[in-house]
């Protein structure tokens, strides 16, 4: 395990290159793999894949090369500040408002990935990125420790992981080197099975341990009391999730988005460049021609299906617009990265508004501003391309 940091550096560089080359193009498939890995073996995404995490590690190394002594947040302050991440998760998940999402639009992790994909953000968002990169010269992973709500979600998911870092009490000499080297300020020397949601599986604790076998990574071994505690917590979580699903289904909601909507209007025989079939989609809104009384943005546009791009909260959004007899009759979001809860809030309203008014100049949905703008801009882009 002593060479693990070299392997990790290679993986981080590779993932940075893959991100630049469009590694997250198939975003849903990528996230499913990451979530599965997280449930089974912990938060490898943050420690091995996340480009902004790697940049913080890189500048931390630069700080050491410049002779800057790394500082550690005092533990009593650390224990308070770590809750920032989970408070942000709660605000986003339970409340969700334009103000919260306006603040999160400066998220340096998201904006750094956008920058890698040639999407230059605002001066403010770039300034926030540079601020955290500069702080990384003095503190290990400042953003990851206290502000990354995405990392907090992964951490909570990984709490019941099967594979984890283990400390052998009988061979541990209590030198606390593992505590000193941990970039997430975890007291590894006090753990038996490391299940902290802060852990990012960087394995720096294992690499720094002077005693062979004192720290290892593998299948977690728990005592009976620990097993009972974790089993009770796991059952409680499943009960809560089941209750949430039953409540929503009983009240007519569709939390799993199980149904499919179909395109009821066929397009003309004229084939457009890039035209695709839209027979089925979970994110399809269809309005018949009879309901579209005014000719608006569809005027002078030939029948067909046109594709445009917009910018959602978490990245690019691809929208298809169907035009028939100078009317916009269907709008379909075929790809997006936004959280489904907030995306659905916008998608349930914006396409209907556009088709009803036959214009993309509609108001955004409160609490889903960025998803709304992504759909609107995607429609505008599609209609603009149709005139070329």
Outline the structure in words.
The protein has 388 residues and is an alpha+beta fold. Helix 6 packs across helix 11, helix 8 (108-116) packs across helix 9 and helix 15 crosses helix 17 (369-386). It has helices at 4-20, 27-41, 44-49, 51-65, 75-81, 83-95, 98-104, 108-116, 123-135, 142-146, 149-157, 177-181, 204-208, 224-250, 340-347, 350-357, 369-386, and strands spanning 163-167, 193-194, 215-219, 261-262, 280-281, 284-286, 304-311, 316-324, 327-335. The chain is elongated and about 80 Å long. A hairpin with a 4-residue loop joins strand 7 and strand 8 (316-324). It is 48% helix and 12% strand. It folds into three domains: 4-221, no CATH class; 222-256; 261-386, no CATH class. The strands form three sheets. A four-stranded antiparallel beta sheet has the order 6-9-8-7. The chain has a three-stranded antiparallel beta sheet with strand order 2-1-3, with no helix packed on it.
> What is the 3D form?
elongated
Fraction in helix: 40-55%
Strand segment count: 9
Span between termini: 58 Å
Series of H and E elements: HHHHHHHHHHHEHEHEHEEEEEEHHH
Low-confidence stretches: 252-293
The protein's oligomeric status is: single chain
Task: Write out the strand line-up for the largest beta sheet, numbering strands in chain order.
Answer: 6-9-8-7
Q: Can you count the helices? A: 17
Mean pLDDT: 80
Features:
single chain, 388 residues, alpha+beta, 3 domains, four-stranded antiparallel sheet, three-stranded antiparallel sheet, 17 helices, elongated
């Amino acid at each position: 395990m002593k060479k693990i940091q070299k392997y990790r550096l290679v993986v981080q560089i590779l993932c940075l290159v893959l991100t630049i080359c469009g590694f997250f193009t198939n975003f849903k498939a990528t996230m499913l793999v990451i979530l599965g890995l997280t449930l089974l073996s912990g938060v490898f995404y943050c420690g091995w894949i996340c480009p902004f995490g790697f940049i913080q590690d890189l500048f931390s190394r630069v700080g050491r090369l410049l002779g800057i002594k790394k500082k550690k947040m005092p533990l009593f302050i650390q224990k308070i500040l770590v809750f920032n991440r989970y408070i942000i998760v709660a605000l986003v998940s339970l409340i969700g408002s334009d103000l919260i999402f306006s603040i999160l639009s400066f998220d340096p992790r998201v904006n750094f990935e956008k920058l890698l994909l040639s999407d230059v953000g605002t001066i403010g968002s770039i300034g926030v990125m540079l601020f955290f990169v500069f702080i990384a010269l003095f503190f290990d992973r400042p953003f990851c420790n206290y502000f990354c709500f995405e990392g907090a979600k992964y951490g909570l998911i990984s709490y019941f992981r099967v594979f984890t870092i283990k400390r052998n009490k009988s061979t541990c000499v209590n030198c606390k080197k593992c505590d000193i080297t941990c970039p997430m300020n975890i007291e590894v020397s006090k753990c038996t099975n490391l299940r902290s949601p802060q852990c990012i599986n960087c394995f720096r604790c294992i690499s720094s341990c002077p005693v062979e076998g004192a720290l290892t990574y593998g299948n977690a071994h728990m005592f009976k009391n620990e097993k009972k505690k974790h089993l009770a917590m796991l059952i409680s979580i499943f009960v809560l999730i089941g209750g949430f699903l039953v409540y929503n289904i009983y009240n007519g909601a569709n939390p799993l988005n199980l149904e499919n909507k179909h395109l009821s209007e066929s397009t003309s025989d004229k084939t457009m460049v890039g035209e695709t079939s839209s027979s089925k989609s979970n994110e399809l809104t269809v309005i018949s021609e009879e309901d579209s009384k005014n000719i608006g943005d569809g005027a002078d546009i030939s029948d067909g299906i046109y594709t445009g791009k917009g910018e959602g909260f978490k990245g690019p959004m691809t929208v298809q617009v169907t035009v028939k007899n100078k009317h916009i009759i269907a709008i379909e979001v075929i790809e997006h990265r936004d959280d489904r809860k907030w995306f659905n809030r916008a998608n349930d309203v914006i396409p209907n508004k556009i088709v009803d008014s036959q214009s993309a100049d509609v108001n955004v949905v409160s609490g889903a501003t960025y998803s709304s703008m992504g759909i609107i801009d995607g429609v505008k882009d599609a209609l603009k391309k149709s005139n070329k």
